[in-house]
Design a protein that fits this description.
By secondary structure, the chain is mainly beta. The chain has one helix spanning 145-168; strands at 2-3, 11-12, 17-18, 23-30, 35-36, 41-51, 56-57, 62-64, 70-73, 78-79, 84-86, 89-90, 95-96, 101-102, 107-108, 113-114, 119-120, 125-126, 130-133, 138-142. It is globular.
């Protein structure tokens, strides 16, 4: 659902896909080929949220801030299921892992990878290409070219998803038994994108 708040209406590029079970409120700008999953809460009520082109904000994520703050997800940022971004700036082509929490005034440099369940405390400045894990989050190493290629390939799947959803996604009545042949089966799937090793 898309909600106006105090005269601010969200701006959403037509090429983006915002699931109808997401809630986008107020001073929010969503760029090209952005995917926003169900259960996401993007609250531009006390400040502004800018989600640049090619980002994805997956299921059950929360993006919010203290009054007067702008949250920015730079181009290609990938926000995993259940993550919370509160008053932070996420650099270009970053990956924020599932159920991570990124607190106020954090600046995540470009091409960083944040591990699942990581807590990054308020005010941290994370240099470009850092891998951050833990609670509290600490930098454990530099992100390699191979790792960022893997991340970029995964984000490309989400950048293609809005158009795929527009062409083949629709409400339906469930079947009562599985079909004889799975319409989604492609046989050998060794070529598909895989989790990081």
């Amino acid at each position: 659902m898309i909600y106006e708040f105090k005269g601010y209406k969200p701006v959403i590029d037509p090429s983006a896909f915002v699931h109808p079970q997401a809630a986008v409120t107020g001073n929010v700008i969503i760029g090209k080929k952005v995917y926003v999953g169900p259960g996401a809460a993007i609250r531009g009520d006390w400040g502004r949220i800018v989600i640049e082109d090619g980002c994805n904000v997956q299921e059950n994520c929360t993006i919010h801030m203290f009054p007067g703050v702008t949250v920015r997800l730079h181009e290609g940022a990938h926000i995993g299921h259940g993550a919370v971004i509160h008053g932070a700036v996420i650099g270009r082509n970053c990956l924020v892992g599932m159920n991570s929490v990124i607190m106020d005034n954090v600046r995540l440099g470009e091409e960083c990878i944040v591990g699942a369940l990581t807590f990054i405390k308020a005010g941290m400045e994370i240099p470009r290409r850092s891998m951050v894990v833990g609670n509290p989050g600490v930098i454990i190493k530099e992100v390699s070219d191979e790792m960022i290629q893997w991340k970029t390939k995964g984000t490309a799947l989400y950048q293609a998803l809005p158009e795929e959803l527009r062409t083949s996604w629709r409400e339906c009545t469930p079947l009562t038994a599985p079909p004889e042949e799975d319409p989604g089966s492609t046989g050998d799937q060794t070529h598909l994108y895989k989790p990081w090793k």
